[in-house]
Each structure stands twice: as structure tokens, then as C-alpha cells.
Design brief:
The chain contains 13 helices and twelve strands. The protein is α/β, with parallel strands linked by helices. The protein has three domains: about 5-50, 434 Repressor (Amino-terminal Domain); about 60-160 and about 295-320, Rossmann fold; about 160-290, Rossmann fold (3-Layer(aba) Sandwich). α12 links the parallel β8 (about 240-245) and β9 (about 270-275). The longest helix has 16 residues, at about 190-205.
């Protein structure tokens, strides 16, 4: 089996990007002498030889990576960008941010950017839209492409442990004594399916059968969360608690509960997926499951570096650090 740059990195205890820069004598790389020696020793011991095609590609690189997301104002992307930015800088690249829908509207321009060599690879967080398919089709035909917080059978991809996070959120409500627990799903992606599965799994382990009428589309925006909760609250019987698949949707859900005159958490407990700074400043403060978004961004760049080195695409789940439940005022035991 051919030794890859990932094998060298694993033995040396560094990232593939650092191995690449050491072996290419990057003058801008600032690492300790013992780390450099460890990388070189690992390469010698494993008899690692970079492919000529990959080496030729490296020498013609633009030094820029693209990160394409939906809704650039979404605060969740801040942590992802911070992680990706640091990893890209460590590898000697700049990170360029773009809106997926904007790129798709200017597909000819994006095509010129990709085929003109302006970026060396693309990170993309899709939402199951036509714009996603357009951008993935254009980019993956020419440059390495990594899907963020998703899974692909053909492209490199990196995801969070959505299953564990959703189980944790649902289990928190079960531990409080709730048995009528709904879920506002984000929809359209595998991460949504995993969060639905985590909700179902936790209920099944407690000997409960999920009520299908309590699985409602809540999306990933304030507006979609508002609409989803309004729909949920029109159904009977009402749940006493809800797991919301996205923190922005949870803000809309709180508004819908307030409109309906439902006290949170007196009559309805709400727990969200993802934690953001302002979650603690809502009324009530929002209980949330914090996920390792910064590590997600960094892992995506590492995968992209592997692809630039000619390695086969693979899927990675970020499990370290594990999801963390941040308990605040939006959850409480059900009313007696």
C-alpha cells in the first residue's frame, strides 16, 4: 500500500498540512526544530515519496481556499470560520468566504474562478438546495471539494456527531420528566436525518413511541422556526417539550410560544441544537447543546489539504470535544 502524507502526519504527531510545508521547505513555516526533525524522520522511516502530479500541482497553487455557506449573516458560521481560518493559515493559505446562492446566480463567474485557478479547493456547507448542486457540480469537476457538516459517498466530507447531540437534548427533557416531546427538524440534509434519529432513539430507549404529528419542519432560520412552531402548536394533543434542530429556528419557536400565550418553560420546554453567545440573553435564556464548530472548520481544512496531496476522499466525524449540554431557563419539569 502506498504511504500517504496522512500516514507521515500521524506518525509525526502533526497535521498533513505541516508535513507538506516541511517537505517543501516552506520558508514561512514557523515550527520548533524538533518538530521539523520528527516530520523528516517519519518521512524517512515510512519511505514517503510525494507523487509527482501532486508536487506539480502544489507549485502552481493560488494559495487560496474557498468557503461557501448559506446566509453569511448566520452567527453559527463564525466559529466554523475561525477554525477553518486558523487551519488554512497554518497551511499557508488564505480563506475566502462566499455565499452559495450568490455564487450560483453568477455561475459563469464562479466557473471562471474555479477553472482559472483562483482557488485551490472549496469547503461547502450545503442545505439541500439547487444552488448547492450547481456549485458542487462546477467545483468538484475541477478542484478538491469538501462538504462541511454533511456526508458524501463521492466527495470528502466532515460532520458533527449530530446523533449524539440530539440524543443528549432529548435525554435532558426525559430526565426532567417529559414524555410528550416534539422535534422541529431542519430538513434537507443528512445532518437533519441524524438529529431526527437521535430524537427517536432517545425516546425509544425510554420506552416511548414518537408521535409522528410532533415531527415538524422547523428549518434553520428564525422565520422557519416561527412557522414550524406555529404549526406544531396547532396540533392536538400539545407536546410539553420540543427539541429544535437549530438555534436560530429556536428563537422563532420561542416567539411562536409567546404569541400562543404558552409560558416557557412553565407549559413548554425548549432546547436547541447549537449554542451561540446571545442564547444566554434571550427571555428565557435558551438551553442548548453546544457542538464543536471550530473543530469542524479545522477538520474540513485538514481534509482539503489531504485532497490537494492526492489522497482519496474520506469522511470524518468530529467527536472530540463531545457535545455539551448548556442548561438555562428554557427547560424545566412538566407542569403537574
Amino acid at each position: 500500500m502506498r504511504v500517504s502524507i496522512t500516514d507521515v502526519a500521524r506518525q509525526a504527531g502533526v497535521t498533513p498540512a505541516v508535513v507538506s510545508r516541511v517537505l517543501n521547505a516552506d520558508p514561512k513555516l514557523q515550527i520548533r526544530a524538533e518538530t521539523r526533525d520528527r516530520v523528516l524522520a517519519a518521512a524517512r522511516e515510512l519511505d514517503y515519496t510525494p507523487s509527482h502530479a501532486a508536487r506539480a500541482l502544489r507549485h502552481s497553487r493560488a494559495g487560496a481556499l474557498g468557503l461557501a455557506v448559506h446566509d453569511m449573516a448566520n452567527p453559527l458560521y463564525g466559529e466554523i470560520i475561525l477554525g477553518a481560518q486558523k487551519a488554512a493559515a497554518d497551511a499557508g493559505f488564505v480563506l475566502l468566504l462566499a455565499d452559495i446562492d450568490g455564487l450560483a446566480r453568477g455561475d459563469d463567474t464562479f466557473h471562471r474562478v474555479v477553472y482559472g485557478g483562483a482557488i485551490d479547493g472549496l469547503l461547502l456547507q450545503r442545505a439541500g438546495t439547487a444552488s448547492d448542486r450547481t456549485i458542487i457540480g462546477t467545483a468538484s469537476a475541477r478542484i478538491p471539494t469538501v462538504l462541511l457538516n454533511d456526508r458524501s459517498t463521492t466527495l470528502a466530507s466532515v460532520a458533527l456527531d449530530d446523533l449524539a447531540g440530539s440524543r443528549m437534548a432529548t435525554q435532558h427533557l426525559l430526565d426532567l420528566g417529559h414524555t410528550r416531546i416534539a422535534h422541529l427538524k431542519i430538513g434537507g440534509t443528512q445532518r437533519s436525518g441524524n438529529r431526527v434519529r437521535g430524537w427517536r432513539d432517545a425516546l425509544a430507549r425510554a420506552g416511548l413511541t414518537p408521535n409522528p404529528s410532533w415531527l415538524v419542519a422547523g428549518g434553520h432560520t428564525v422565520e422557519s422556526g416561527l412557522a414550524g412552531m406555529r404549526s406544531l402548536l396547532s396540533r392536538r394533543p400539545l407536546p410539553t417539550a420540543v427539541v429544535v434542530g437549530n438555534v436560530l429556528a429556536a428563537i422563532g419557536a420561542l416567539t411562536a410560544a409567546r404569541e400562543a400565550g404558552l409560558d416557557v418553560p412553565g407549559r413548554l420546554s425548549v432546547v436547541a441544537f447549537h449554542d451561540v453567545l446571545y442564547a444566554a440573553h434571550l427571555t428565557p435564556a435558551l438551553t442548548a447543546v453546544a457542538m464543536p464548530l471550530r473543530e469542524l472548520g479545522a477538520a474540513a481544512v485538514t481534509l482539503l489539504m489531504e485532497r490537494l496531496e492526492g489522497n482519496e476522499p474520506r469522511h470524518v466525524v468530529v467527536r472530540d470535544p463531545a457535545p455539551v449540554l448548556v442548561t438555562r431557563g428554557s427547560t424545566a419539569p412538566p407542569a403537574s
